Amino acid sequence: MQKKWLKWLLLTVMLIVGISINGNGVHADDSLQKVKDKGVLTVATSPDYPPFEFQVNQHGHSKDVGMDIELSKQIARDLGVKLQIKNMDFNSLLVAIQTGKADMAIGGINPSPERKQNADFSQIYYYGGESFLINKADTEKLKNQSALKGLKVGTQTGSMQQSLAKKNLKGTKVVTMDKNTDLILALKTHKVDAVGVETPVAQAYVQNDPDLKMLKANYHLNKQDTGSAVALPKGATTLQTAVNQSIDKAKAQHLIPQYLKTAGKYMKVNTADTSMMHYWKYFFNGLKYTLLISVCAVAGGIILGILLVLMRLSNFKWLSWPAVSYVEVVRGTPMMVQVLLVYFGLGVLVNIPALPAGMIAVTLNSAAYVSEIIRGGINSVAKGQKEAAKSLGLSKTDALRFIVLPQAFKNIWPALGNEFISVIKESSIVSIIGVTDLVYELNVVRADTYRGVAPIVVVMAIYFIITFTLTRLLNYMERRMKHD
Fold it and tell me: What single string gives the DSSP state of each residue in 426-444?
């Protein structure tokens, strides 16, 4: 009987696989048609890589510019659709096209064999070569690539520069960071001795920062793997063909050099005034989103936290066990992973924009901690209070509502206040998916102005003012509660 059951199961699985394979063979790729039907080409990029892509301050508003942005505009024009730019961390670009968040990704992406396993690529549209950035004071000491042996070289996480450095710089320690702006700051503060970047990027920094110098890399490079290409979803052959046609057109009309010149003009605009006051609207915009996310997360966290506590205190295991499991999973995993899971993981089923996804992730995270705070508050209420409520004829629900919870909230107010303050600071993690909070705007200003420390000081001051003011307000309310 068991063998017969297994036989039917095997046949069913084979039938489903056969239908899937046959379906894939019959239906042609419709990636290009989907873009045309939407009327929008969604492009994922990481705008911290001048001159490829960066942002310029125009009348207090940020605008995505650079060679790659100009090429994206050309591709959208050739397709007859509008262009939509989605900003996020470089590490998330390929994930964005795999999960349907974007139709293509651009950002000085090199089509390495490893990346080709998870994405398709256009033809190479630009090859700039590889270089190192070093401090000008180290010019005599670091005259060539061989002089880097035994020193620290910084590269962006997941980049071609990271792979090339590990492969070619024997005896050198490779240090990786997510942002090029962080790498430059590490270089200028002597945390690393050199930073590996593409030559146009090195030239951009040298032209705008007199303390930096460029050192040519002597890698043996395969141009097909190390040039820049557009990343596309696997199997998107019709869209790939259309993108290649646009690149052919750009090459034939010599548009790529023009795109670079345009990027250079924008870079001069950015460096004309690098004062933090010039970028006050950036910081104000980031502050608005930080406070919005924090308030929504705390409010939603309290509501969901109370629900989780009620489930956990229930006599029904089918309610208590899910609540316990949820709290343990959330508390046992980093918030960054949770943010990525909500944005990209759930994005496979539902296309959630970055801001709502960030709010949901922070809310779900806060709810787990709030539920434990509330549970501790309930347990802190004297057992005699519950017995007195019972003797008065109050039901368990009424006793919890009118007797236990009011006292519990009074006891846990300081802990809830600390959770609110923690959410304000920890919500900065949503910047990895392109939410324009304070940390996101911090990185934009650093990339635009080539100033590493000043924007950090400004954002630190803003966070301190928020948390200091909130702490004083919470302390005042706590004293009022004790007085009452």
Answer: HGGGGGGGT--SHHHHHHH
